[in-house]
Design a protein that fits this description.
14 strands; 5-stranded antiparallel β-sheet; Uridine Diphospho-n-acetylenolpyruvylglucosamine Reductase, domain 2; Enolase-like, domain 1; Uridine Diphospho-n-acetylenolpyruvylglucosamine Reductase, domain 3; globular
Length: about 280
Amino acid sequence: MRASPADYEFIEAYDLVHALSLLSSEEGWRPIAGGTDLMVLFNSGVLTYKRILSVRKIPELTQISSTQDAVRVGSSATYAAIQGAEILVNEFPLLCQAAGWTGSVANQNRGTLGGNIANGSPAADSPPALLVYDAELELISSRGTRRIAYADFHLGYKKMNLAADELLYAIHLPRTNRRLRHYARKVGSRRAQAISKVCFHGAIQMDGDSIRDVRLAFGSVAPYPLRCRNVEQFLSGQRPTASLIEAARQKLSEDISPIDDIRSTASYRSHVSQNLLADFLEQLL
């Protein structure tokens, strides 16, 4: 351990009003829930913010509920809770699968969906699933609340559409009656507890022999998780064929921009991304 707890101040918010009042102050409080990402920084001695505000036990942030139109997932809902929510298992299986990929069982019992989003890592497992499902984020502060499409949340590497006094309150997943075929793959250095080299989620709806609606989202191939809008537009309305799949593979380069880093290379990520896209589409032949 390269840091000392004595160098930090820690408070647990006793309710939402308390949390928002501290975040709106000029004292530099930063919210955490599960703290799984924070501990990595702390152990490495690179945790720069000194005042830490736990929001983990605020009831409104842990609840999973539904209406006729949407499912609401509180930002402090854990990966374990997500995997155990029947409505998510039945209607949003990609999110549940991503929750099962995230670290060990201990991490899944502690880590939260909101933390995975707000940490801003391009390699996070759950964001591509949220993009596929057109998720919306509800942000709250002492000034009020606002909702934005999750697709508009990431502005760059570790840059987010989130003010210093705002808290990620909930994730909203629109419910539809669409019969989607789902696909998810994570490629890492090993089968479990590995950070993604490439993470891919896809969903598709057919209209007879043609593609009616397709959603494709990747992690670890750009500065932030992204939807592949160019490929989606290219595939929409088309009948799946071997030649179409090959053209889609080549089209993917217009959406993704992988880099070389300690975990992989840009060329490997590009090639694997093309293979995953092709594997998904080949199931339609």
